[in-house]
Request: fold
Amino acid sequence: MKLGIVSAIFDQSSFEEMIDIVAANGLECVEVACWPNEKAARRYAGVSHIDVANLNEANAQKILNYAADKQVEISALAYYPNPLDENLAKRQAAIDHLHRLIDAAKLLNVNLVTTFIGRMQTKSIGENLDEMEIVWKPILEHAEKAGVKIGIENCPMLFTQDEWPGGQNLMTTPAIWRQVFTRLDSDAIGLNYDPSHFVWQQIDYIAPLYEFKDKIFHVHYKDIKLYPENLKDVGIMATPLQFMSPKLPGLGDVDWGRYVSALTDIGFDGYSCIEVEDKSFEKNYDDVKKSVTLSTNYLRNFVI
Reply:
């Protein structure tokens, strides 16, 4: 198992500077953020360390050479939009950029794109599953032809009133995963598994590792801290950030020993990346860099 980090937290660094930070922390890989070069509405979005729209063989090789010189591998190309957005112009822009990532992943010989399925946030799960088939079958056909896999993260993308009521990502529970994998019957689609999103949903984050072991393409290390006193006050129907908060690994409620133990049980030996989204470590950019070192040092207790 190789330990790395999601590059979205390094929004003030170029690709080279980001790789230098990753290497300095002794990390083996990086999930590289590849958003379009435009301003994004939400935190951690809009970061682009590789411009996939203008990628060619020459600059792809330059990228690979720089990372290799620092002994860092690219685990995946990351882009987390809403490909089922009810605004059809936004939907099409997300789909078009996903196709660019697929081509870039092939060119870079990374062969993995990490993203969201998306969700029409005002529609039912059934309606979303039907729409998902229409949108995603052509994307997966492109991925299959390119020899690229798609790892869907299980984040509900439901945090505040902006994503209410249904969130912006359908791929949230094992019950839904079964339906998705039945409807999208392709070896090209699988999971970018993040246990933290199950904590606040009150879902077992260990058991699905065993059931879906053949669909786990990539994994995340991000923690979630629940605030029971807040939950008692607002209840589970509140927007989630009213009763929980993302934290660095080891500072929340995930049992990382059990999680990594289960990964070793199922024989997972791929890429595993820290995802930093802890507001307590965002006072300045030095604080962000410190959070990476703290997270790495902690997870080295489990991943060596």
